Amino acid sequence: MKTEFFTINSLEDSQIFEKAGELLRNGHLVCFPTETVYGLGCNALDGKAALSVFAAKGRPADNPLIVHVAFPEDASLYCYTTPLFEKLAEAFMPGPLTIILPKKEIIPDEVTAGNTTVAIRCPSNPIAHNLILTAKVPIAAPSANRSGYPSPTNAQDVLEDMDGRVDMILDGGDCSFGLESTVISLTGDDSCTILRPGAVTREMLLKICSEVFVAEAVVDPSAVKNGAVPSPGMKYKHYSPKAEVVLLEGSREKFIEYVNQVALPGDSVLCFEEDKSLFDKRVVTISVGHEAIPEEECHRLFSALREADKKESKHAFVMKPKTEGVYLALYNRLIRAASCKITKIDL
Ligand code: TXA
Ligand code: MG
After folding, report:
1. 255-313: per-residue pLDDT in tens?
2. CA 20, CA 131: separation in Å to the nearest integer?
3. Do the Cβ atoms of 101 and 120 come closer than 8 Å?
4. Which of 35, 87, 149, 254 is least surrounded by CB atoms within 10 angstroms?
5. Measured from the CB, is residue 143 less than 6 Å from ligand 1?
6. H or E stretch covering 333
7. What is the tens place of the pLDDT at every residue in 37-95?
8. Do residues 113 and 64 touch, judged by C-beta distance below 8 A?
9. Is the CB–ligand 1 distance for residue 179 below 6 Å?
């Protein structure tokens, strides 16, 4: 298949949006930017189109897709909403929050991988919003990476993974947040459970919900046994570049000392901007921004992991982040990228 690539310079590029919308309506695949990561979209009302999304990504058949709507009010067309959903939607939608709810008949089983629930998200990125409006159908979209690889946060990374596998890619520049949306299930009238942490943090959700639980597998992927998991995506190897990600726990000084001691020539280190000059010349330094601004690390993490592969590094060393606030999203991605292994270096 030939993949058409268009750069969106303005929402007035109506011909491109019309073309993309028509492709989607007719069962084809279009990659598009959101405020979190790029999505690989199809018509969410078309089961056959959903199956071609699984094929294009090489995605396990039991891992359901998120349905993207233009307005939070549209959610009730596709699922049974609750008063708590309304409150959360009022506070966080449009934005990087995905809520799991019982699905209505209109959503095909192929989209939800046979689940009776559907994940609903209303993206705030104007290109994503405009695309859903122009398509006139909800868009089912996983992240636009090949399964297992870090999610793409710019259109070049999408092209690398999806050239020849999708009909169109819309380039809308870098994604502002850079990690996927927070996924929650509503576990009571006034409580929810985080299945995947993201930009909408536990602390933010606590302003609306009286209790916010964090699923065990979020911080400890080894808690995922072969049995039932609240979100199928928890089971799979994720966010992994070809380089072996080595997650190190200890002080910043020890981190620098350790990497300088053990790194092979050409290994990468993901480090703070201010520490770049402290690493040995044989190590490739990839900045993840400034220490005091975790949002910079969220923004850069996936492209930094991909960068390590471009440099053909055997290892990519990363410091273990904290787990409060937005750091929980970083920690959740990194521990999976590192196949659940943390190396302690302070001892
Ligand atoms: O930010 C995002 O959410 C991006 C952009 C494109 O919107 N999308 C994304 O999709 O990250 P994906 O497919 O890579 O991740 C969706 C996650 C998976 O872990 C999946 O298992 C979970 O959401 N999920 C989807 N539907 C679910 C359902 N009905 N029940 C439980 N988990 C569900
Ligand atoms: Mg994904």
Report:
1. 999 999 999 999 999 999 999 999 999 999 999 999 999 999 999 999 999 999 999 99
2. 7
3. yes
4. 87
5. yes
6. helix 327-337
7. 999 999 999 999 999 999 999 999 999 999 999 999 999 999 999 999 999 999 999 99
8. yes
9. no
What is the rounded average pLDDT for all residues in the chain? 96
**Could you tell me the distance, in angstroms and rounded to a whole number, from the CA of residue 201 to the centre of ligand 2?**
19
> What are the φ/ψ torsions at residue 140 (nearest 5 degrees)?
-85, 125
pLDDT tens readout for residues 113-155: 999 999 999 999 999 999 999 999 999 999 999 999 999 999 9
For residue 223, is pLDDT > 80? no
pLDDT-derived band at 224, boundaries 50, 70, 90:
confident
Select from 115, 161, 183, 333 the residue to mutate for testing ligand 1; criterion: most ligand atoms less than 8 Å from CB.
183
Alpha-carbon gap, residue 100 to 118, rounded angstroms: 5
**Cα distance between residue 241 and residue 245, in whole Å:** 8
Q: Is 176 in the pocket of ligand 1 (CB under 6 A)?
A: no
Q: In whole angstroms, give the CA distance from residue 151 to residue 149.
A: 6
Sequential DSSP letters for 116-173: SEEEEE----HHHHHHHHHHTS-EE--BSSPTTSPPPSSHHHHHHHHTTTSSEEEE--
Protein residue with its CA nearest to atom 3 in ligand 1: 181
